[in-house]
Specification:
S-adenosyl-L-methionine; binds S-adenosylmethionine; Rossmann fold; 304 residues; single chain; two-stranded antiparallel ribbon; 18% strand; seven-stranded mixed β-sheet; 10 helices; alpha/beta; 9 strands; EC 2.1.1.201
């Protein structure tokens, strides 16, 4: 198998990937912004927009890394001062990774429905669950499980979440995408953002995703892909091979890890190939959307 452009054994790849993310954990979030010029936030916004999660949904974010708990502290504090006042509550902050974006998105959906219901004198649809949950327990809260193979990445995420008081609905689990530590049919949604190219057996990770999703559940994957425009492709090549490793050295003191990240992107299957892999693994209605001219692709598929 490949570790960047080096040919290594499968066990070597897994331990080298582990080492890369152990090295970059502390600087990962800063580097992410620097390397993508902040555009990764727009790609993640696009994922949430396509996902459009509803209150009560359970999400598994695999290879979730640090979870990027970059919700500004002052926002969290102000929101806590008005926990019940749905009119004064601040709008969702513009920062945060998949897990945090998901929780904010669901919360804003709930609040919108609540405001609408107050104006119309009705019960919000997400509260009116007696038909779906007849035991009287009510709808389960939305929840996210962030799962990553790397303890260091999770540690950074958990510390930041704790320091900003973001704990409700969020849990952190060390686990391998190829052998997830969850029972079958557990989640409504599965996301993997910039993680699947690091996995040694992509087909095995896809099979595991299918196993833990509930029937009807949705898989969404963000990953670097094949640039479709030749001019953009040329610029992207120069940026990837000549700028990113330099940024890695200057900001994180780690040229090699960032060189690996760039090279691993080139080895990953393109849009159509990855779509085929998803279909072969058993996903239905597989489609993809190119973002930023194919620099990144968002793949989506459902479990029947
Ligand atoms: N999802 C985050 C984001 O979008 O910023 C982090 C992506 S980071 C580039 C890739 C992550 O994949 C790392 O945290 C790494 O530890 C994790 N990873 C690599 N191999 C994995 C595996 N087999 N199972 C689970 N996570 C894995």
């Amino acid at each position: 198998t490949h570790f960047g452009f080096e040919t290594v054994s499968e066990t070597e790849k897994a331990s080298k990937v582990y080492k890369v993310f152990e090295n970059v954990a502390q600087k990962y979030d800063v580097m992410n912004d620097a390397m993508s010029l902040g555009i990764h936030r727009l790609w993640k916004d696009a994922l949430l927009h396509v996902m459009h999660p509803q209150p009560g949904a359970r999400l598994l974010d695999v290879a979730g890394g640090t979870g990027k708990a970059s919700i500004p502290a002052e926002h969290a504090d102000k929101s806590r001062q008005n926990p019940d006042n749905i009119w004064l509550r601040l709008p969702p902050p513009p920062l945060g990774d998949i897990a945090f974006r998901f929780l904010e998105y669901v919360r804003s959906q709930q609040e919108r429905q609540q405001r609408r219901a107050v104006l119309l004198g009705q019960t919000p649809s997400w509260q009116d669950v007696s038909d779906r949950y007849p035991d009287g327990g009510g709808a389960p809260e939305s929840a996210v499980v962030v799962c990553d193979i790397n303890k260091e990445m999770l540690k950074v995420g958990r510390q930041r979440a704790d320091s900003r008081g973001v704990t409700t609905g969020l849990s952190w689990v060390v686990g391998d995408a190829e052998e997830l530590p969850f029972n079958d049919d557990q989640f409504d949604l599965y996301t993997i953002a910039f993680g699947i190219r690091n996995v040694t057996h992509i087909d095995q990770a896809l099979k595991e995703a299918l196993r833990v999703l509930k029937p009807g559940g949705r898989f969404l994957c963000l990953e670097f892909s094949k640039v479709t425009n030749p001019v953009l492709e040329r610029l992207y090549d120069v940026y990837s091979f000549q700028v990113i490793p330099v940024l890695g050295e200057v900001i994180a003191g780690d040229w090699k890890s960032y060189q690996y990240l760039v090279e691993s992107i080139r080895k990953f299957p393109d849009q159509e190939e990855f779509k085929g892999l998803m279909e072969d693994s058993g996903f239905f209605c597989v489609q993809y959307f190119n973002l930023t001219g194919g620099v990144v692709a968002l793949h989506s598929g459902f479990k029947l």
